[in-house]
Design brief:
The protein has five helices and eight strands.
């Protein structure tokens, strides 16, 4: 199965946000290249909110280009066999934490936002950090920092706050 086919199945199985979910499905129907950064009309991206429930905190990255505190994530790549694999790869690369495990149940949320390259149709997962996880900053970040749940709204935008709320509801 291709990444494109996996994305269709994941989105069809996602039961929340029906209007936005349909926007994603319509985009893929109209754009066979809609998984890739090269699709100028927008593309599917995958992200992972790295969470440490034991200590009541999340790891956010200060994105180098956007200069915003965000969850780990980005463009799908040819090595990604599934959206979940793309989210886990991005989470691991950007956090520097080996052994992340995606929260069961598929995507936590969808979020469509404009970026300098195009519209991102982000499929958002949550990744559990192993006990004692130590982060390591990547080239894509200006900073990497753990925030207590109640600090997130002070530093991040509404999309990250909604992702954290949905993740906590699923824990």
């Amino acid at each position: 199965m291709s990444l494109f086919d996996d994305a269709i199945l994941v989105l069809k199985g996602y039961e929340d946000q029906p209007e936005l979910r349909q926007t994603y499905l319509d985009h893929l129907s109209a754009h066979p290249d809609g998984m890739w950064k090269s699709c100028g009309d927008g593309h599917i991206t995958a992200s992972a909110l790295v969470i440490d429930p034991e200590r009541g905190r999340v790891l956010l990255t200060l994105h180098r280009k956007l200069r915003m505190w965000l969850q780990m994530g980005g463009h799908c790549e040819p090595v990604d066999e599934t959206l979940a694999a793309a989210a886990l790869r991005e989470g691991t690369e950007e956090s520097g934490i080996p052994g992340l495990v995606l929260l069961p149940g598929g995507p936590v949320r969808l979020d469509r936002h404009e970026t300098p390259c195009a519209w991102h149709l982000d499929v958002q997962y949550a990744a559990l950090a192993p006990s004692g996880a130590v982060e390591a900053i990547s080239d894509e970040s200006l900073d990497l920092r753990w925030f207590a749940y109640d600090e997130v709204a002070e530093v991040a935008d509404e999309s990250v706050v909604r992702l954290l709320e949905a993740t906590r509801a699923r824990l």
